[in-house]
Amino acid sequence: SAVPCALLLTDVALSMTLEATRLQLTGKSLLEVKRDTLGTLQTLQQNLSMAKILGSVDAETFKLSVALVRKATNRILHCIKEVQKASDDALQRGQHCLTHASSVCRFAAGRGDENDGNDA
Questions:
Q1: Is the pLDDT at 112 greater than 70, yes or no?
Q2: Which residues, at least 6 apart from 100, have a Cβ–Cβ distance to it below 8 Å?
Q3: Torsion sign across C-alpha atoms 12, 14, 20, 25
Q4: What pLDDT band is residue 74 in, cutting at 50, 70 and 90?
Q5: Banded model confidence at residue 120, pLDDT cuts 50, 70, 90
Q6: Which regions of the chain does DSSP assign to beta strands (E)?
Q7: Taking 90 as the threshold, does the pLDDT of residue 96 lie above it?
Q8: CA-derived radius of gyration, the chain
């Protein structure tokens, strides 16, 4: 009876480990997007600073600037949504695992009590 309960609890732990790994991967993706977009936006800032010194921004530069900001924003928002989804899923899985692990422990405790009573 102890071995099956241990296996069930191991299964619960593995399930949470998978959720944690997913969260970690989405966090790393967000960090990569941050690095990529930061470099792009810094270059854009430099270009716009030069345009400011010159006194004007041509229509093509403006259009390119808006497109770069839109693309960076969309990438960041997409990654944040992925992190949020992974977080929500981990929370839901965690609650399920807590319930399952509690049931397994109650079952194991009950069987231990029964065995103690039968041995006396």
A1: no
A2: 8, 12
A3: negative
A4: very high
A5: very low
A6: none
A7: yes
A8: 27
Per-residue tokens: 97: 């695992």
How many residues would you count in the chain?
120
Buried b (16+ CB within 10 A) or exposed e, 81-113: ebbeebeeebeebeeebeeebeebeeebeeeee
Where b means 16+ CB within 10 Å and e means fewer, 28-65 reads ebbeebeeebeeeeeebeeeeeeeeeeeebeeeeeeeb
Whether the CB-CB separation of 75 and 81 falls below 8 Å is answered with no
Give the tokens for residue 118: 């039968």
Cβ-contact 41, 68 below 8 angstroms: yes
pTM score of the predicted model: 0.71
